[in-house]
């Protein structure tokens, strides 16, 4: 994230939502992904998000407010 901020500047994401994806992101744990999204504000972004994949679905599955049945 700091490398991205180094390229875009601390205001590079101002007014935008930043989506992270790719091999490096897929290799991150859910905790790492949440940290990355949390740091999106450091580049001025309104929010950060990670493209959902099996890691995301496995993390959500079975949680209290997760969709159930066909909705999941």
UniProtKB/TrEMBL annotation:
It holds the Pfam family Aconitase. Its cofactor is [4Fe-4S] cluster. GO terms for molecular function: 3-isopropylmalate dehydratase activity; 4 iron, 4 sulfur cluster binding; metal ion binding. GO terms for biological process: L-leucine biosynthetic process. Pathway: Amino-acid biosynthesis; L-leucine biosynthesis; L-leucine from 3-methyl-2-oxobutanoate: step 2/4. The keyword Electron transport does not apply. Keywords: 4Fe-4S, Amino-acid biosynthesis, Branched-chain amino acid biosynthesis, Iron, Iron-sulfur, Leucine biosynthesis, Lyase, Metal-binding. It is an enzyme of class 4 (lyase). It catalyses: (2R,3S)-3-isopropylmalate = (2S)-2-isopropylmalate. The keyword Zinc does not apply. Its EC number is 4.2.1.33. It comes from the Bacteria. InterPro entries: Acnase/IPM_dHydase_lsu_aba_1/3, Acoase/IPM_deHydtase_lsu_aba, Aconitase_4Fe-4S_dom, IPM_dehydratase_rel_enz. Residues 1-69 form the Aconitase/3-isopropylmalate dehydratase large subunit alpha/beta/alpha domain. PANTHER family: 3-ISOPROPYLMALATE DEHYDRATASE, HOMOACONITASE, MITOCHONDRIAL-RELATED. Catalyzes the isomerization between 2-isopropylmalate and 3-isopropylmalate, via the formation of 2-isopropylmaleate. Heterodimer of LeuC and LeuD. This is 3-isopropylmalate dehydratase.
């Amino acid at each position: 994230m700091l490398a991205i901020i180094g390229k875009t500047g601390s205001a590079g994401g101002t007014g935008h939502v930043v989506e992270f994806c790719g091999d490096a992101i897929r290799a991150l744990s859910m905790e790492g992904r949440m940290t990355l999204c949390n740091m999106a504000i450091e580049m001025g972004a309104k929010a950060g998000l990670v493209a959902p994949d099996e890691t995301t679905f496995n993390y959500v599955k079975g949680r209290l407010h997760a969709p159930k049945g066909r909705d999941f």
